[in-house]
Design brief:
Blueprint lengths: L1 H7 L4 H16 L9 E4 L3 E2 L1 H8 L2 E5 L3 E3 L13 H9 L1 H10 L2 E3 H7 L4 E3 L4 H13 L3 H11 L3 H19 L2 H12 L9
Parallel strand pairs: 1-3, 2-4, 3-6
Antiparallel strand pairs: 4-5
Helix pairs in contact: 2-9, 3-4, 4-5, 4-9
Length: about 200
């Protein structure tokens, strides 16, 4: 939401950092659920939206979906757990490439790299995700809940990453680079960053 980013620029550092921590907690609360969550990604998932999908236990994605972790292309430090969730899904080197370039990729690549469990045709995304969820739900609840806890995110490590991201995003909100990134996105042109 580019408009929200513009509004956050008007807040001071502390208020922006606190807002981001609250924002992250709201959407990433999916990681605290006792039951497995299957994400069904149909269409575009860019930035924070892709992070929410990665926070789920499993992800089925439209093979043609437009995906990106494009924070840096806007002049913004990544947030929403991107620095924790992405390496966990695709490994350190691929995560670094995706986060440092901010490039777009499709659902087929997401499945090839392990970010998504499967890439399927758009009309099959929700039925496939529901089929996986039904298969999981048919199993012993105590065992499934225990596995969810053991396989799930390291809540301490995720929180540490979120705190660092909120700090750096709050710094980004005061930068000229974010202003330039937002203007360039609105004008559909390449940004010219100054590092300030």
């Amino acid at each position: 939401d580019l408009e929200m980013l513009g509004q956050l620029r008007a807040l001071g550092f502390k208020r922006a950092r606190d807002f981001m921590l609250s924002f992250y907690a709201r959407y990433l609360s999916v990681t605290a659920l006792e039951v497995p969550v299957v994400a069904a990604v149909h269409g575009a998932a860019i930035g924070a939206g892709l992070c929410v999908a990665m926070a789920c236990d499993l992800m089925v994605v439209d093979a043609a979906a437009k995906l990106a972790l494009n924070f840096v292309q806007l002049g913004l430090h990544p947030g929403m757990g991107a620095t924790y969730l992405t390496p966990r899904r695709v490994g350190a080197q691929r995560a670094a490439e995706l986060l440092l370039t901010g490039r777009r990729f499709d659902g087929a690549e997401a499945a090839r790299t392990g970010m998504a469990l499967e890439a399927v045709a758009a009309e099959e995304v929700l039925p496939r995700a529901q089929a996986i969820a039904r298969q999981i739900a048919a199993n012993a609840p105590l065992a499934v809940r225990a596995l969810k806890g053991e396989l799930g995110v390291d809540r301490v490590a995720l929180q540490r990453a979120l705190e660092a991201e909120a700090f750096h995003q709050a710094e980004s909100y005061g930068s000229r680079d974010l202003g330039e990134g937002l203007a360039a996105a609105a004008e559909r042109r390449a940004p010219t960053f100054e590092g300030a």
